[in-house]
Model the fold of this input.
Amino acid sequence: MVLLIGTILLTVQGQSSTTDSSESSPTTTDETETTDEPTETPEPTETRTRYPTATPKNATYNNWFLIEIAAGAAVFCVAILSGFMLVRRRGPNEKKLRRLPSNEFNTWVLKRLAGRPSSAVDTSFGINGFTSLGYPLSIKQSDSVGMNTIDLFAASMARSKARSGIIVAFGFSDDALRGKVRARRGGLDIQMLTVQELLDNKRLSM
Done:
């Protein structure tokens, strides 16, 4: 878009310089040289005088039209950029999600994953919902989900006969990976997904 605006402005300048050069070029008229020697009187001929060519008014209108187009394109770009920044500010972020009550936070995660809430029995086992493909979800509004939480979720998955599951949290501690490896040894695949990855629209690897 910036290149387009630059091209339009260069075109306007080129047309303006062409118009100025055409207006500044002098016009000449035919002159008859006179000498002292007697000459025969020529037959009268018609004398044609060159008149300066008038500059068409359409050129000026075209220049203003191109300038208006360039200005409109610039305003359009600024409006789009401002709207994008405004939507981004109003959208969810980690700071806002941390302040949500636990039930509203769980609802946001389920909507983000196109999931559904779990039953009361599943909730008592530590399963907060299921994805659209039926994978169990454990939603933790915490920054340091560790190995113990992974182990409990793995036990809940085994109880519900699920082979794959997802834990969503703001962050995971260093020993969380060991819990994931231990669950894999038992034939369970647990994916650890952060809230920031949900905000970035990361796709599940399942």
The chain is about 50% helix and 10% strand.
